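User: Second chain of the day. Same drill as before.
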Amino acid sequence: MPFELLPLCADDLGEMAAIFNDYVEHSLATYTETAVSIERFEVLMCLVPGYPAFVVRDGDGAMAGFGILRPYSSIPAFDRTAELTLFLGKTFTGLGIGSRLLEALESEAVRIGVSTMISTVSSLNPQSLRFHRARGFVERGRLFGVGQRSGFDFDVVLFQKML
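Assistant: Same format as last time:
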């Protein structure tokens, strides 16, 4: 099935929130326990003009996933560092879409002067932990037991990838 990578636009936020909320409701992959509105989702994602953000659509136009980079910090010393958020619809995992999306984000990151990508992942999300490790991210730290989701304590795993 063909997939198209497109720049994120405001009309995509509802479908993006739906993908995110599916993980909220049916997994332990997100930090939040309750579904989020489109407005709250936009705040959670911290969309920043000038930073790359893409959606992937299948041949029928359905959103397969999205990826966003945003500043790691507002302090100028960290201008070369961006934080990654990437989610795929559950029926679109394992098809290479996440890798393609990540490659596009990395390419655009380099273009805008970003040399380091950071990603934080819940220790309760083994699929994302594997994804990051398999694509060159290195675990640089772990905050033990700092979160709790559905009665389960979790670590926040800090990943870094040099571009």
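Residues 107 and 163 are 9 Å apart (CA to CA).

User: Great, on to the next one.
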